[in-house]
Write a structure and sequence with these properties.
- By secondary structure, this protein is of the alpha+beta class.
- The chain is built from 16 helices and nine strands.
- The chain folds into three domains: 119 residues, no CATH class; 153 residues, no CATH class; 212 residues, no CATH class.
- Strands 3, 6, 7, 8 and 9 form a five-stranded antiparallel beta sheet that branches.
- The longest helix has 45 residues.
């Protein structure tokens, strides 16, 4: 009794009416268990300093457990790079001449065909990317290829078509299959290349910096592949410097010179504007300037000399020139006859083909394959026929030109002996030297363009960036772990305050039993 009275005195309660009692498990009036919350809070207050350390320990344990869980279940880092194509798509006519160049807008190669994205993971590109690269862990090309993913990006119109078809399929529409067949999906001139960490069966892990470096090098190697595959900035062979005045007669030499100069000018003229307007840092001139000079040489020197020679019928050996022209004429006539015969055969086939519209099914059946094969055959035949007509026109023009030359050679000229061929040879040699220097200047310009960044970049790629779960993205888990630790610490503190109440109840019951027995 004295112990109970002493404990009651220690509790700072002014009035029984201010006491808060908590009744636990009260099935009947006899087994009532009361917990005095005032004493509980008093007990907790006495142990405040100890349990502040306990809560700090629990908070630290919760944070460490969350970090450990993050490290164990963390997904491998994935780095991605957005690749954007940058070049002009070339369109050619039936004769192969360039008709136009348009900036690439779809996923198209420079030659107008569909771009083969499998070349990103080809052995050629991957080997070029890994050459000279030392990593912390050895990675094979096969393992690297397995971890690379390429995602194309649909155009807005194709995306809408795909959404409509998907809704029709989900609604089990009977016409959904037909609609899906007729959808022609197109992609913009950008795609995403992703590289995921963790290589091989043993999950070889590279550092984040190494992973980004590998993807950047793969994209650089792919750009070099595009340049090596589609770059057509190669000048025609220098036929001008190879012309030997003494090997053939003056008129034949002039024919070769005129053809070489015209081919050089046409090649430069068909180049895109980025090439023609590029201004040299060495000379300050562009390709357009050099083409203007070449045109002046062609009009003033080459064409004038050609007119002078033919007008005055200047030759060294008339019989040899006549024989050469007759030989060339027979060859051209033979080629023309063969092309005309082939053209007539193709025209007969096309005249018998009557089908305005072809429906090609996507079903893998023999009929669908034969229909598509037949359609492709006739389409190719039409293209071939157009090329034949163009070739016939060129051959007829060449034949007419040679016939005119032979007619002039056959006509006797009384004043032909008054023209000195040596002077014409000297003039021709001077013109060849001028044209050869013009070729050298254009060649230096093209070499500078090829080495410049404006031409060596067929595809731009963004710096590889990671998309994996970072420590910042795991902050929610860390916060939950810390709050869980605090909750456990507070729970232990509360239990430490409630435990004496149960012990006090047991003591009171034992005292009642002693009084009752005494």
């Amino acid at each position: 009794m004295e112990n109970n009275e002493r404990r009651e005195d220690l509790i700072p309660i002014a009035d029984r009416g201010q006491q808060i009692n908590l009744v636990v498990n009260r099935p009947s009036e006899e087994g009532v268990t009361e917990i005095n919350l005032a004493r509980v809070f008093h007990n907790m207050k006495k142990k405040l300093r100890v349990y502040l350390w306990v809560m700090l320990l629990c908070f630290t344990a919760g944070v460490c457990a969350a970090l450990l869980l993050y490290q164990v279940k963390k997904k491998p880092l994935t780095v991605s790079s957005v690749v954007t194509l940058k070049y002009d798509v070339v369109k050619r006519d039936s004769s192969g001449q360039v008709t136009s160049r348009t900036p690439v807008k779809l996923l198209t190669a420079p030659d107008g065909k569909d771009l083969d994205l499998t070349q990103v993971t080809s052995s050629y590109v991957l080997q070029a990317a890994m050459n000279g690269l030392t990593l912390s862990q050895p990675v094979t090309l096969a393992e690297l290829r397995d971890n690379i993913q390429i995602d194309r990006i649909l155009t807005e119109d194709s995306r809408r078509k795909q959404e409509v078809a998907s809704r029709m399929i989900s609604d089990k529409n009977t016409g959904a299959y037909t609609q899906v067949q007729n959808i022609d999906l197109t992609y913009i001139n950008s795609f995403v290349v992703s590289l995921t960490n963790g290589f091989g069966q043993k999950e070889i892990m590279l550092t984040d910096t190494e992973l980004q470096l590998v993807l950047d090098r793969v994209m650089t190697a792919y750009n070099e592949y595009l340049v090596a595959t589609y770059a057509d900035l190669k000048l025609p062979d220098n036929v001008i410097a190879a012309i030997d005045i003494q090997a053939q007669d003056i008129q034949e030499t002039l024919d070769m010179l005129r053809t070489a100069v015209q081919d050089l000018y046409s090649f430069c003229e068909n180049e895109p504007e980025t090439v023609r307007f590029y201004r040299s840092w060495r000379t300050g001139r562009s390709l357009n300037d050099l083409m203007a000079e070449l045109q002046t040489v062609r009009d003033v020197s080459v064409n004038y000399l050609n007119s002078y020679v033919y007008a005055n019928d200047i030759v060294r050996d008339r019989e040899a020139v006549t024989t050469s022209y007759q030989y060339r004429l027979r060859n051209l006539q033979t080629r023309l006859a063969a092309i005309e015969e082939k053209t007539a055969t193709n025209q007969g086939i096309l005249d018998n083909y009557k089908n305005d519209e072809i429906f090609v099914s996507m079903q893998e059946s023999d009929s669908s394959r034969s229909t598509k094969t037949t359609t492709d055959y006739y389409n190719n035949l039409i293209i071939e026929q157009a090329k034949n007509f163009n070739t016939v026109a060129q051959l007829e023009e060449q034949i007419s030109d040679i016939e005119d030359k032979l007619e002039k050679l056959d006509a006797a000229r009384t004043d032909a002996s008054l023209i000195d061929p040596a002077k014409a040879d000297a003039e021709l040699s001077s013109v060849i030297d001028i044209c050869s220097r013009a070729y050298d200047q254009i060649k230096e310009q093209f070499q500078e363009i090829i080495d410049s960044p404006s031409f060596t970049t067929f595809a731009d790629h963004s710096v590889a960036q990671g998309k994996g779960e970072s420590l910042f993205s795991a902050a929610k888990k860390v916060a939950l772990g810390g709050f869980a630790g605090l909750f456990i610490g507070c729970g232990l503190w509360l239990l430490s305050g409630i435990a004496p109440e149960f012990r006090l109840k047991k003591e009171e019951e034992s005292i009642r039993k002693e009084v009752a027995e005494g």
